[in-house]
């Protein structure tokens, strides 16, 4: 079966990889837009303490976290291990320590969701030992199954692995080609490519691409500005993810790097700019939690447009009234957690397996 996947962020790359592994003839197309979310995403995979109340979305998030160990093992079989993925643990560090009770209740209630791991209250000195720049006197809740991943490296690994399984990777801008009520392929720089199935995983840019179908995808870009700090020589490889539960967070990677995120600028449009207020907001929030980072080098600031649905729920499944066309979108602030798993679900749907997209189905608002 010939399948075209548009968008090589985490969702499209995962879909293409799973399809290529199953022997499909896959073409993955990407335009490398400035501000693509996967290249800017922080990479926290630790949903269990999240105050999220929407049960279906939480279930998908938890499914995403649960899928990671098998998923990374599968990539390792394909020779791809440079993902920046590590189960370093998550550390909840709210400014008001009384909030630790509520987060601990949530985590313990969800602790049946493998791979939560062990859950433990830490004294300030223990928390500081795990993440030295953390503010003093900060008690914490540690969840050992929390992980982080580098979205850029993971998406690149998925593309390479898909190609190893025979996929073709094309750089270009795709337009949907419809024949009657059927998606027959795409047009890329004037050339029509035909397919038996088209999957559109074009992130925040997808609504425009879907206009010819008559579907009004309720997704818009939400800008995130995210700061990378470095102090060469510091061994940050095992530092846990810090979650103060105030919408900001800090996480570390192997190369003496700490990432501080992020602004959430709804109604930003595709305005690809760093702003004084956005950067100040993120730095202030980060340094309030980890003042020990004040002397670190300001290494890089990234911008990403989260594909955010108007009801904050992912949008997954067939486009009503159009045959052979699937959409994956709306992963919002949690796409690096859910993306690999959602890509597998989309691939299964293409392959004709029964997948119930239920509350995430397009056109559904319940
Ligand atoms: C600052 C920030 C921090 C985040 N932190 C986390 C986190 O800690 N944990 C977490 O789970 N998630 C996080 N996220 C969310 C996550 O990054 C996104 O939900 C996810 O990356 C969305 O992936 P995507 O593949 O849907 O979209 P994208 O990564 O945006 O990919 C869409 C791709 O489609 C391409 N495209 C668009 N139109 C066309 C076209 N017509 N033709 C060809 N190609 C096209 C684009 O160029 C782009 O490459 C964060 C996001 C941001 C911005």
Written description of the protein model:
- With 366 residues, the protein is of the alpha/beta class.
- The chain has 2 domains: 2-39 and 152-218 and 311-360, FAD/NAD(P)-binding domain, CATH 3.50.50.60; 86-146 and 220-309, 2-Layer Sandwich (D-Amino Acid Oxidase, Chain A, domain 2).
- Helix content is 28%, strand content 27%.
- It is built from 8 helices and 19 strands.
- It has helices spanning 10-21, 55-77, 99-109, 124-130, 151-164, 206-210, 276-289, 335-350, and strands at residues 2-6, 25-30, 44-45, 90-92, 119-122, 140-143, 147-148, 168-171, 174-179, 182-188, 191-194, 197-200, 219-230, 241-243, 249-253, 257-261, 297-309, 315-318, 325-329.
- The strands form 5 sheets. It has a 6-stranded mixed beta sheet, covered by helices on one side. Strands 5-6-4-14 form a 4-stranded mixed beta sheet.
- Strand 10 and strand 11 (191-194) form a beta hairpin.
- Helix 1 runs parallel beside helix 5 (151-164) and helix 1 runs parallel beside helix 8 (335-350).
- The longest helix is centred in the first third of the chain and has 23 residues, at 55-77.
- It is globular and about 65 Å long.
- The two termini are 33 Å apart.
- The model has no long low-confidence stretch (mean pLDDT 96).
- It binds flavin-adenine dinucleotide.
- Flavin-adenine dinucleotide (FAD) binds at residues 6-12, 29-33, 36-38, 40-44, 151, 173-174, 201-203, 205, 209, 224, 226, 261-262, 304, 306-307, 331-337, 339.
